[in-house]
Fold:
Amino acid sequence: MERLRDQLGEIEARRKVLEVHTDRDRVAAEFERQFSTRNVRVVREPSPSSGGRGFVIVRDAGHEFRGAVGIDHFHAMLSPEIHPPWTLEDADVDYSDLFEFLENTLFTSYDRRQMLAASREIEERAWRIDAGTLYVGFQNSAALASQLSVYDRLIRERELDITVFVEDECDERPVDGIEIVSDAGGEIGAFWFVIYDGGGSDLNKCGLLAEERESDRYYGFWTYEPERIDGLVSYLRSLGGA
Amino acid sequence: MDETRLGAVLEAIEAMESDAAPDVLLDVLSDRYARYVLSHLSDESTATLDALADTATGLAATETGSIKTPEDREEIRVRLYHLVLPKLDAAGYLEFDSETRTVERDEIPDVLRKLLRNGA
Structure:
């Protein structure tokens, strides 16, 4: 059974290249700050002058082209607006395309705001599909308290099961219907995760996993790979709960 | 290209007493992939078909505010190979070697460079 840190390690082993075509130093530096990891190499290429701020190409380890997006569009991803899951489909920018564009790409210094926006993307899918289970890890019960209103609404208005993991003791069940796994082991306190089992469909499986390596600096990835989600779900189920 | 911009382009061509044929210029300027190729060649004098396809796909993503997939890129690459590069070659702006799939910049008229720089 793979623990959370092993899952992160597996993604680290996959190399990706973000080729940043821009002639603006600040833009290039921002990409390096957010994505430069052992698994993501940020390469700077000159940009034809007509390209505005420029564009980004994602390549896999074999240097194959995986996608391209303009930096103006990409920027929405770096400073996201946070929308509750039930309004996300009305948002100005279609984040889901951007999320799929960057799946399995390690980010190196997301802050809380970016993490919340990414979490909402996963929750929105669960809200839309209206079936299945969400597994959510909070570093402690105070972090859980700040997000309870969202989960309260998800459980009241949708046919979803929600299992919440916290590292510390949490005896009471804060919202009817939410399963709490407290005292869930040493790893949980270092990770922020939102994993959705897809409600029976591989196509809808998705999840976010990140480790807080410094205060308010998260290191991790999100994925739409069914096998990876299955692995995470079976590990989390082994910790207890439903 | 909208009408105002077209007007500006025609004016620029006239004002510069360019020896480049206006119909060829307009044809090139109205083809976004031709513009992308020429933009790439304004920075580098030679390029591979693959590098041009990357740039054209990236610029198309930027201009349309969309995300381009490997399928989109392949379509653009085929378009460059069969349509855009032969056209630019015939206009004398570049030399395209379809065997080696490389391109060498030839004579790009000043008026065209200027218009491309201004985001025509």
Summary: The two ends of chain A are 18 Å apart (CA to CA).
